[in-house]
């Protein structure tokens, strides 16, 4: 993809101002509670300038280096998922009317147009999967669809993968190839800008871009080549159906269950996990009720409760469900694995369980 131009570092605020001028609320990465998280972004100065991360199984640390880069870190705990599929959403209200009847409403929150800055390639791939799930079927989810409709995505080519990243092996990174409006390749002086949509090209025309120099584009390419080489983790294959479903009684399931806390952290941070539960909250006087949906997880007992019976009563069954669905049966549902190699489930697992190690051990067959 040919570069559209080059934006000097000192003009990054112009990008945010241009987005606001055409009606977007900007969201971007910022340091919050010791991690890089998405939050409303008004000033380019609030980006994580100079911060670097160190991620390993069960650990995440940030340190300030004083460096000149805004995006020299790998993904924090959040993908795009919480911005589009809210952790808790009001689905329906019912009110008892004076005539004794019930009045139902299904409000869809008005969220307005949103621009997200700093999206990585793995999260663009995860977004395509969420789109398939939430708006690709017979009945699109109105809440997801409302947020998705006016979304402007500014990707950043990922030049500093964490030790837990493995997007190369899933084919989802580190270069942002599709699904963005603008993409940025960071250099010491600023950003090589690539337009990925008509909306992106339109916004680029509002920016003080100069032509990108060949050396600047080559710098971005070299940084991405280094990012590919830096990844040491991988899945054994992009299609693990045979290996997983052929080894449902492998002793490794028991071994991983003896370490797994069934806490659900892995599913909460996973940018593609979409399981949820629904519940009713009834007012004490019985005059109204509200129905909510809330993120759920393969790792909760309640999630497998069907007709009063918990069908995955132990952690071995629940971990196996997660892995065989994520890396196996997603192929039948969505045409590919549900893993985009972001590594979050490895970093944020409190006991450091590594999906790549578990998948490889099970798929290797009975020891
Ligand atoms: S399974 Fe783990 S590595 Fe794969 S997309 Fe989910 S959080 Fe990322
Ligand atoms: S694999 Fe780790 S993060 Fe996931 S439920 Fe088990 S202990 Fe929690």
Structural description of this entry:
By secondary structure, the protein is α+β, with helices and mostly antiparallel strands. It folds into two domains: 5-85 and 109-230, no CATH class; 241-275 and 297-363. 32% of the residues lie in helices and 23% in strands. It has helices at 12-21, 81-84, 121-135, 142-149, 167-170, 198-204, 214-230, 241-245, 251-259, 265-269, 315-334, 344-347, 355-363; strands at 5-8, 25-32, 35-40, 51-56, 59-64, 88-96, 102-105, 114-119, 151-156, 182-186, 190-195, 276-282, 288-295, 305-306, 309-310. The strands form four sheets. It has a seven-stranded mixed sheet, with helices on both faces. The protein has a four-stranded antiparallel sheet with strand order 7-6-13-12, with no helix packed on it. A two-stranded antiparallel sheet has the order 4-5. Helix 9 crosses helix 11. The protein is globular, with a radius of gyration of 22 Å. The structure holds iron/sulfur cluster (2 copies). The site of one iron/sulfur cluster (SF4) has 13 residues, from helix 12. One iron/sulfur cluster binds at residues 269-272, 326, 339-345, 355.
